[in-house]
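User: Working on a comparison across species. This one is Active regulator of SIRT1-like from Thrips palmi. Can you predict its structure so I can line it up against the others?
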Amino acid sequence: MSSTLVKKALELFETDADSKSQPPKKSQQNESRKDLKARKRALKRSDRVLGDVKSKAALQVDVARRISSGNKDRTNENLKALMALGSVKPVDFKKAEKIFNQTVKRKRPVDDTAPPAEPSMFSEEDFKKFEEEYFVNSSIH
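Assistant: Here's the predicted structure for Active regulator of SIRT1-like from Thrips palmi:
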């Protein structure tokens, strides 16, 4: 190879390396960011629209299932049952007393007496000896 070819190759290599090491211009970065933001906004809009369509479709499927399964509207029946529960009836005191006694019998009686104190193997003299032997240098005295 000739020296001129080697020099040209080195020059091309240096210019190529210089162009790769320089960061892209700020204007190109800003444009790419703007483009990215626009894409994200468009995706969010499409998700919102798809979400609305999905929820509406789910509601329609739910209504169709109710109709096809033969479920009746039991609102009136439920209201009658609630009204019957709410009506005032005379209290049967015999039954109330029986229920009260059953609930009282199921509970354990509460023992308020204190347990008797257990006798100790050590006397007060033993405790004083222990304190003198083991706490000689402490400030407990």
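For your comparison, note: The chain has one domain: 3-136.

User: Helpful, thanks.
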